[in-house]
Amino acid sequence: MLELSAAQAIAAIGAGELDAAELFAFYRGRAVEHGGDVERGGLNCFTWTSPGVPEVPVGPLAGLPLAVKDLFCTEGVSSQSGSRILEGYEPPYTATAVSRLREAGATLLAKTNQDEFAMGSSTENSAFGPTLNPWDRARVPGGSSGGSAAAVAAGLAPWALGTDTGGSIRQPAALCGIVGLKPTYGSISRYGMIAFASSLDQAGPLTRDVTDAALLLRHMVGHDPCDATSLVSPHEIELPTAERLDGLRVGVPAGLDDASGASIEPGVRACFESALTLAEQLGASVEEVQLPHAPHALSAYYVLAPSEASSNLARFDGVRYGLRAENASDLLDMYTRTRHDGFGPEVRRRIMLGTYALSSGYYDAYYGRAQRVRTKVAQDFAAAFQGVDLIATPTSPGVAFGLGEKTADPWAMYLSDYFTVPMSLAGIPAISIPGGLSAQSDGVGPHGGGLPVGLQLAGPAFSENKLLDAAYALEQAIGFDATAAHV
Amino acid sequence: MARLARLALAEEEIEPMARELSAVLDHVARIGELDLDDVVPTSHVIDVTGALRPDEPRPCLPREVALAQAPAVSDDGFLVPSPQA
Fold this sequence. Notes:
The complex is a heterodimer. Chain A has a domain at 6-244 and 399-406 and 429-478: Amidase signature (AS) enzymes (Alpha-Beta Complex). Helix content of chain A is 33%, strand content 13%. Chain A contains 14 helices and 11 strands. In chain A, helix 3 (96-103) links the parallel strand 2 (65-69) and strand 3 (107-112). By secondary structure, chain B is mainly α. Chain B has 2 helices and 2 strands. Chain B has a two-stranded antiparallel ribbon with strand order 1-2. The radius of gyration of chain B is 23 Å and the shape is flat. The two termini of chain B are 24 Å apart.
C-alpha cells in the first residue's frame, strides 16, 4: 500500500484491488506509530490523528486519507495554528478547502504541525515542539508547513494540505524531497484558514508526485461566497501528461544570488544546473531574464506580512476562544498578559514589527514603500513573461539545516525563503519538485546519498496546467525516488 | 510599541526584542534606496470589484455555539474583567 501514490491508490480502489477503509487504517497505524512525540521515536509531525476509521465516502477521491495543516479550521477537531493562544480550540465550522476535498471523497487522517501562525521556515516555532526531517532527524523539515511535508516524505500520509505565504509550502517540500504547489493567489478559498497575512496566504497541496498535486488542486479551486477574494478558475486543472518540453521557454533570473546575501550552496547549484540541462534535453530553451526588484522582495515581504499579521492577530485577546491569562487586574492587563503568554517569540517579534511599520510617522517609509516594491516585483514578472513561459530557480538556497541552527538569527532564517517570496508578492503560481540530492551533503540521508534539493518553477497567474505539465515532464526525466525517506 | 500591540513584555525581554527588531529593520531599510516616487502601491494583487452579496437576513452562528469556546461566559455574553478595576 505504501508504494502507491495517491492517484494510484484511487485507481486501485476503483478497480476493487484495494479497500479504502483498510488503506485508512494502514496510514492511521503508521501515523500513530511514527508521527507522534519525539521522545517515543516519532517525527512530531502531527498535532492530532483520527481516533478511528471513518465511514468511506463516495467521490472521485475514493476515501483517500488526507493530512491537513493545523491552521485549517476543522469542525470539532483541534485547530490551533501551532499556537498556545488557541489551546483547546475546536472550531464550529470547517475551512472551505477541506470541506471541498471531503465532498470529493477525502477523509481526515490527521492535522499537521507547523510554525506558529505559519510564521517560520523550520517548524521550530510551534507550541507542539519542532518536527523532525525524516531524511535526517537532526535537521528541520522546513516550514511553515513542515509537519505536512515530513508526513508525506516519511510515508505517514498519502498527501497533505499546507499554506504558503512566502514559501511555506514550497520550501518544506524542497527540504523534504516532495512536491509542493502554491497556486495563483485567490484560486482556493481562504475561508477557515487561520489568517497570517491575508493578501499573501494561499492553500495548496504537498504530495509525493506532480500528478497527485494536480489531483488535489483540482478539487479545491474555485470561487467561494465566504471569501470575496476567491476567484473563478478560468479552466479546469488537468492531470499532467507531457513527456517533452518542446518549444517551452524557461527563464533563469540574472544574478540569482547576488548582493542581498542569499548565497546558493554549491550542491544546490549543481542540482539546479543539471535540471536546466535536462530541460534543454527535453526540448526547452533556457535563457536569462531580468527581475531587477526580486532581490528587494524579501525586505518588502518582512514589512507587508508582519503588518498584516499585527492586524489579523489582534483578534487573539482572550475573550472569545483559547487561552486567557488568570487573575487579570483589569481588561487591558488581561489582553496584554494573555497575548504575552499565548504567543511565542517569533510571533511576538512579527507583531511588534508590523505595529511599528504601520505606526503613524513610519507608515510611509515602511508599509507604503513596501507596497510600491510589491508593484515593481509584479511588473518585473509580467515583463519577463513576455519573453518566457516559465521561470526557474532553486526553491531554497540550501538543503535542510540543523535543528536550532538558525533560531538565533531571524534574518538568516528568513533568507531560506529568498527565492520563494517574490512569487508570493506577485500572486503567481509556483511549484517545487525534487531536483535530486545535494552531493555536498553526501553521507547524510537514509541511504547516505545526500539531502534533497528543490527546483522551483513559476508561471503567470492561472498557468497551473502549464506549470504542472512542465514539472511532470521534468519529474519523469529526473527520476527522483519519492519513497527514499519512508520510515 | 508593545503597548500599542497589546503585548506585555517583561523587563528582561525588552532589550533582546529591541535588538532583534533593529537587526531586521536594518535589512528591511534597503527598500529606502529604491526610487519609487511614481509607483502605485499594491495592497492586493488581484482586482476584486463589486464583491457584494445581496443584503438579506440569514441565519448566523447560534449564540450557544459562539459562546462554547469562550474562557468565561456570563448568561448570554462573553465575560471579561472590568476595563477599570
